[in-house]
Write a structure and sequence with these properties.
Purple Acid Phosphatase, chain A, domain 2, six-stranded mixed sheet
Length: about 240
């Protein structure tokens, strides 16, 4: 059964964006259901999955495999790697299934889509980022949209670079929200600063995630699907 999810809308205007685009951001599905958002996918120009489509703590990835089959029928899907992809016991089997699907994998890679450059910065066991990929991505001429699963990786390796917009996940909104602030996040500990919303003057956005993804309950912290609207800006 799918978790109850809210829709969060955000508009980006930039002179490098040539045509209006709508992107649905499905972060941290963790092998959960997605039928309730298929209509949102169909209304979008593309779907971005910034990591953790699978859940390494579950033996079955049946729902994630179903996503690989069904989501690309709704819209083009771009998928980057999170910590659950790199740590799951069935990684080799899963990645073979992914690469046989119609999903576009961005594993420290980028691709051009309708005038914008979409990149995927992969999570790594040592927590470091592929600087060679980031250097190359930063030099691309188009509007650069980066998927970076870990907000901490963005903080340590991406922030300050000439990258137009970054979408992150992983923090699950801090799981329990108190006065609009997360209580705990993996990788950041208690009272984390990077759990949801916009940061860095609007150049980075963190999804609360599509499913719970943890044993602890969510409190004051709904699961969410982010809808990004990209629009040309001729006034800058």
């Amino acid at each position: 059964m799918s978790a109850k999810r809210v829709r969060v809308y955000h508009t980006i205007r930039h002179p490098k964006i040539r045509v209006p685009l709508t992107l649905a951001v499905a972060a941290d599905l963790h092998s959960g259901g997605f039928q309730d958002v298929l209509e949102d996918f169909r209304a979008a120009d593309a779907v971005l999955v910034p990591g953790d489509l699978v859940n390494r703590h579950r033996k079955s990835y049946a729902e994630a495999a179903r996503f690989l089959r069904e989501a690309p029928k709704a819209a083009p899907v771009f998928y980057s790697m999170g910590n659950h992809e790199i740590k799951c016991a069935y990684r080799e089997e899963w990645m073979r299934l992914v690469r046989e699907s119609e999903v576009t994998v961005l594993d420290d890679e980028s691709t051009l889509f309708r005038g914008i450059r979409i990149g995927g910065l992969s999570s790594r066991l040592n927590g470091e980022a592929n600087r060679t990929f980031l250097d190359a991505f930063e030099r691309e001429e188009e509007f650069r949209l980066l998927m970076c699963h870990h907000p901490e990786m963005w903080r340590d390796y991406v922030r300050g670079r000439d990258i137009d917009f970054t979408i992150c996940g992983h923090a699950h909104g801090g799981q329990i929200q108190i006065c609009g602030r997360g209580l705990y996040s993996p990788g950041q500990g208690l009272f984390p600063k990077l759990t949801h919303g916009l940061h860095d003057g609007g150049k980075m956005m963190i999804s609360r995630g599509m499913t719970n993804g943890a044993r602890a309950p969510r409190i004051n912290n709904p699961c969410e699907l982010i809808i990004l609207r990209l629009e040309p800006d001729t006034e800058i």
